[in-house]
Amino acid sequence: MASPKIRGSVTISALLLLLLSAYAQRPAEVPPPGIRVGEDGVFVRVLVTDRLNRYIGGLGQENFRVLEDGRQQTIHTFMQQSAPVSIGILFDRRNILQLKTDTAGTSLERWANSGHPADELFMITFDARIAQLDTYRRGAKPDQAKVVFPVGQNLLFSAVSAGLNQIRQGKNEKRALILVSDNPSGGNMPAQSLLGTIPKQTDTQFYAITFRPYNSATSFRSAGVEEIRTFIIPNTNDFVYYLDLIRDELNNLYILGYSPANRKNDGSRRKVEVKLDAPGELPDLTVRFSNGYYSRW
Fold this sequence. Notes:
This protein is an alpha+beta fold. It has two domains: 35-81 and 254-294, no CATH class; 85-251, Rossmann fold, CATH 3.40.50.410. It contains five helices and 16 strands. The protein has a seven-stranded mixed sheet, sandwiched between helices. Strands 1, 2, 5, 13 and 15 form a five-stranded antiparallel sheet that branches. It is globular, with a radius of gyration of 19 Å. The two termini are 38 Å apart.
């Protein structure tokens, strides 16, 4: 159920409803959401949490201010909660013997039939020999297609590249790729030779889910992606829960778009700040966002 929109002061009942609608507790150390920059403006992704690391939804545009290099900007786009999402799962079949591919597919099919009508959902399953793309739409059976990976290229890099190519065709502003893998490296190519190949200033959020106690962020970083939120889960029964957690994070992600007053295309670093003017009745809140971008239009 969507959180109520907050305007002016709130009652105690509204406050309780807002807090109860926030999702389960998150790990404390999480990379900030990214910034998308394009000819249509700058779009800052923002997460708001309380002291227990629960997401806070229901804030309005009037609760946010965006500053670039200390100068307040005019917000022309504001989205939160009800906006559709584009989500892709990259499912590495090589080592995840205890988790069936159908589990992820069933979750996406359920999402497609219960979420926003404009949600765009897909899954790329892959191993060293074959890769397959399944797309999910509301009220329809999944569509299947073959995905061709370049011969001799790092497997994880190829999977992330294919996922990015697919999600860039989407129409939604909220986008995420979820890598499900037990392999800490891509194999057959050194990770450092791949760094920087994929643009860091992407409009996609990246997540990794693994069942082994290693830093699975290495998997994405071997494909040139830097900001990854990683879940290490001990039990395959928790897999669907974490998929729901990721979707809930996307639903509670605020997107603040503006046309920067400084339109010089000089490649300089622009400092971004997001200020929160929350109702006084709310507890201490934390605002997370990337603190800048490079001006390349």
